[in-house]
Amino acid sequence: MAPVTRIPRERGGWWHAYVCPAHGLELDHGDPLSGVFPEGGARCARGCRVDTPAVRGAWTVLSHQAWARRVRVLAERGEDAEAVRLLGEYAVLYRELAADGHDGAQPWMLRGRLFHQALTDAIWAVNVGHAVGTLAARGASGTEALLPLLDELERAALDARHVLIDRGDLASNYTTWLTAAGVAASRAAALVRGTPWDGAKQWLDGPHGLFAHLRACVGGDGWQWEGSTYYHGFVLRAALLALRGTEPAALPSDVAARLSGMVDALGTLATDGGVLPALNDGPYRRVPLALEWLELCALAQQFAPAPQLVAIAAQARAEAGDADDGLDRSTDGWFAGPPLSERAAPGAVTVFEDAGYAVVRAAGVHAVLAFGPHGGSHGHRDKLALSLYGRHAPWQPDPGQVPYAQAEFRDHYAATAAHPAFRVDGAEQAECAGRVLACDAVSVTAEVSEAYAGVRAVRRVEAGACHLVDVLTVTVEDGRERTLTGQLRPGVGLDVQVEPAGPVRTTWYGDDEVLHGWHTGSEPLRPVTRPGPGPADDPQQVRSWVDFTARTSRLVLVSVYQAASRGPAVTGVRLTAAGVEVDLADGSRTVHGTGA
Known about the structure:
By secondary structure, the protein is α+β, with helices and mostly antiparallel strands.
């Protein structure tokens, strides 16, 4: 780990401000344990050096959070004296900041004390509480002096939660972390005092406790209501951290089912190689996030194990590279009893009707169809977007999101144009929800009728024996001609080839996985190809955007995809009155419905 110097003495700001204003890239963290902002400014990978009060405040967030993790590591490793010393420094700082002004926080923020936001305070407090709890459980000396800090952390979490409840935000992702902070701080205080923990009514099974919160924020399909991969994992990780010492089988059955459903949702969403599509707001790829997924997978395996968690953890470890914050990812003994039964592996087609996603697996192609609802402030205008992945290759990924303070790129990545969706007259989709029309063992059909006034769009995705068939139908209901567009938005290198006759051909180049595409339609297709930003981890990386556009009242766009070397090669694709005909190299032909 990095050499120990000192904790910052300043209040942390908003971490989303840690972004290059020119390039939209998250800035390099430098050494967050140094306690000193990077000399000469924070580095952008494109060469900028950025030094503003907002960026300094964001770096201080990263530093305080790194120190909280370090304290938890020291406690887990048995380095009691150093852990207690650092916690004592934080106790003093936290007390000092109580009397300090709170300039710099934005008006919309639910304010904290050590940070601009109470949410950030809570994330920090969870690690602090677990560190003290670990120390107290083995009788480490000096923890009594930390009781005022623990009591203040619990009170701060309770006060902030009251604000959320009063404004009707029981389902907010803030609530999960405030609850986890209250549990961690109060449990640790009880261990220090040597008394039984009496916080279950307040923090777990009371009217505003964790169980009521999960009932409010998790749908029957297992998805957290915002429909964001990141915030789904964010809430699940906080909930599992809050349940330290709890026996999974002793939880109320509906709460256990919701938590297990959340694990199932991640397992189903992940590719066979463990890649988690970055649906709605959330980083596309980020090393600190990879470490969070590692912790979540370790906790989830102890709660409701699933075979896909192993692959997700392996992919997260690869994305983290050499980074390691030292936390014990085994989390052995986190819960007080054995895990719930192992989750089943997903089938070829899974539909999450509450969140509005369908996952289709077809011979090496992993497809995710988005059809609504919008997802609140973290939603994207991407109805009927179809993301495509291989085992590891992000052929056509959901692009994710940049740190929020970069307003222009944040707007871009939430917009329709950034997604493999459809547009009418070049305009933005409205915030709306679609619905499922049909679903069977190999296909799903969804529609949306409110993205554009007077326009109905239907998308059918089917798993063939060795290929994936995608049919997008956009209809102007009054019969007038409008400009209708279906979009390809690759996350990898893409070749586009127009032939004198037959479908437009595309080739998608992942590192070790190649995808072949055939595209045809009810109107002659013009595959207008132009440069566009790649996924949100680097908006400056240019990819080839393709728009299939026609001036008509009805457009049927057919795409057939086949992963390289997966079964007999596709040799022909046609749209006929009978449906979509696909010819294969072995002489066979398959016919697929259009869904509209």
